[in-house]
């Protein structure tokens, strides 16, 4: 792969196509090699242009994004960033199962501040997705498919660890599924997770993982106690830290600011966990 990231933008909205093209073409090292208005159009351009990465909308005429994604991963595996509205959370996670590496929130014609946040997210994920190995991803997706809904059954775990803290970003939802489905319900420590994800998506992610795992998985709530055998996912748009009250450790959720580079902050969660949870 060359130093230039070649991108194909696939979206039936002319506004979205132009918005993504304008954002990406400003960035050094990124080249938009083509645009397509539906899945049929995209199929020909994928085979002709061989892009490093595709931004892909769900809802399109003639061939929708999900149908195109199935074809793509079978015939010409390529890194994909799905483009989603906040109401598409269930579809997002299905797309991630099929091989999409991450998603970005669909732009609207509203305020420039929202567009700036989308711009930052898009650039970060385009660069992050480039580093992901398609061969490794394909193998991991096959593992996920084989053990989907198979809950871990292991011998009783003995450990001195009081908390397992996980930070994840691009490719994180699939990685979290692989990790959490291997953890048995009797694990004697809590699990806390900061996954870079917008508001509105962490609750469906937690709910979906909860159906697949032996442990309980939930979106964290402010002031709730942290308990063993439970995984707490920081809500999108917040940072998570912890406070200790005797033997009880509670979750603190802090609203993110517009200029925060990463939300949730993995560093903030890790630092707080290290300072709060007991050393056994």
TrEMBL record:
Any GO CC annotation of this UniProt entry: cytoplasm
CheB-type methylesterase domain residues: 157-280
Protein keywords: Cytoplasm, Hydrolase
Domain Response regulatory: from-to ranges: 6-121
EC number: 3.1.1.61
Ribosomal protein recorded as keyword: no
InterPro entries: CheB_C, CheY-like_superfamily, Sig_transdc_resp-reg_Me-estase, Sig_transdc_resp-reg_receiver
Keyword Hydrolase: yes
GO biological process: chemotaxis
Organism: marine sediment metagenome
The protein's name: protein-glutamate methylesterase
Catalytic activity: [protein]-L-glutamate 5-O-methyl ester + H2O = L-glutamyl-[protein] + methanol + H(+)
GO molecular function: phosphorelay response regulator activity; protein-glutamate methylesterase activity
Pfam families: CheB_methylest, Response_reg
């Amino acid at each position: 792969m060359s130093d230039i990231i070649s991108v194909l933008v696939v979206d039936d909205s002319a506004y979205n196509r132009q918005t993504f093209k304008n954002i990406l073409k400003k960035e050094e090292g990124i080249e938009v090699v083509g645009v397509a208005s539906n899945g049929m159009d995209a199929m020909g351009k994928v085979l002709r242009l061989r892009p490093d990465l595709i931004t892909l909308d769900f809802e399109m005429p003639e061939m929708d994004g999900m149908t195109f994604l199935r074809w793509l991963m079978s015939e010409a595996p390529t890194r994909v960033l799905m483009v989603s509205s906040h109401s598409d959370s269930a579809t997002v996670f299905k797309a991630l199962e099929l091989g999409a590496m991450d998603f970005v929130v669909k732009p609207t014609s509203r305020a420039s501040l929202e567009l700036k946040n989308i711009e930052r997210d898009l650039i970060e994920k385009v660069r992050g997705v480039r580093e992901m190995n398609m061969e490794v991803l394909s193998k991991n997706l096959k593992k996920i498919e084989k053990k989907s809904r198979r809950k871990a059954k292991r011998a009783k775990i003995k450990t001195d660890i009081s908390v397992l803290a996980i930070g994840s970003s691009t490719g994180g939802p699939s990685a979290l599924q692989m990790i959490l489905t291997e953890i048995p319900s009797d694990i004697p420590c809590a699990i806390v997770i900061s996954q870079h994800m917008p508001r509105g998506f962490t609750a469906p992610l937690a709910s979906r993982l909860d159906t697949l795992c032996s442990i309980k998985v939930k979106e964290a709530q402010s002031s709730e106690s942290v308990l063993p055998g439970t995984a707490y996912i920081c809500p999108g748009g917040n940072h998570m830290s912890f406070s200790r009250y005797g033997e009880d450790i509670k979750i603190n959720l802090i609203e993110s600011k517009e200029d925060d580079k990463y939300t949730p902050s993995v560093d903030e969660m890790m630092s707080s966990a290290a300072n709060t949870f007991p050393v056994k």
